[in-house]
Design goal:
six-stranded antiparallel β-sheet, alpha+beta, Jelly Rolls, about 35% strand, four-stranded antiparallel β-sheet, 2 helices, about 180 residues, 2 domains
Length: about 180
């Protein structure tokens, strides 16, 4: 038979556990931000699995040409990713967080063996989200045979600007690319 003192001790232990759970939940929310939890994770996972991929640039007369720095092994300045009509890749993520699963190489103007290093970033601080390295298989190659093998997986926060910078082993080369993307809207 339990005494009143034992009952009070059990009640206090339950209160302590409840307080610990509340404190830890608050702490996790502070770390992860609002929306942290199973429901938010499942919603994000569902949008990863079930979404429509789009292409940027979206028409056959549009291109994205990336340029490396002028000297060998020298990055060019950070530049916003835009197509030949001055449409920014960032504009696609103005209203919703987005994701870029792949960057496809269409053209390289380096001789065989020219090595390229390409970085993507977002925001004013240029938070680097992906670095790619590839080698030109020949001079002025179009329809690069390994196009699309560069799985990227870039998450772009809502309203952030997407930047790139590139360098190559000889300097001043270009690559023409396109992106597959989707938004979490």
């Amino acid at each position: 038979m339990s005494t009143n003192l034992e009952h009070l001790e059990e009640m206090q232990a339950l209160d302590d556990i409840e307080a610990d759970v509340e404190t830890n939940t608050t702490h996790l929310t502070d770390i992860k931000g609002p929306g942290f939890g199973v429901d938010a994770s499942l919603a994000h996972l569902a949008s990863e699995i079930s979404h429509a991929n789009h292409i940027f640039p979206e028409d056959t007369d549009e291109t994205v040409t990336l340029t490396s720095g002028g000297g060998a092994h020298t990055f060019g300045a950070w530049a916003e990713v835009v197509d030949n009509n001055a449409v920014a890749l960032s504009s696609l993520f103005a209203a919703a967080e987005g994701h870029i699963p792949k960057v496809f190489l269409e053209e390289l103007n380096g001789a065989a063996g020219v090595i390229y290093l390409l970085e993507f970033a977002y925001g004013a601080a240029k938070t680097i989200i992906k670095t790619l390295r590839f080698v030109s298989p020949g001079a002025a190659v179009k329809n690069v045979p390994w196009a699309g093998d560069h799985g990227v997986g870039l998450d772009i926060p809502v309203g952030e600007t997407v930047y790139y910078r590139m360098k190559d082993s000889t300097g001043g080369k270009t690559s023409v690319v396109h992106f597959s993307y989707f938004t979490y809207a």
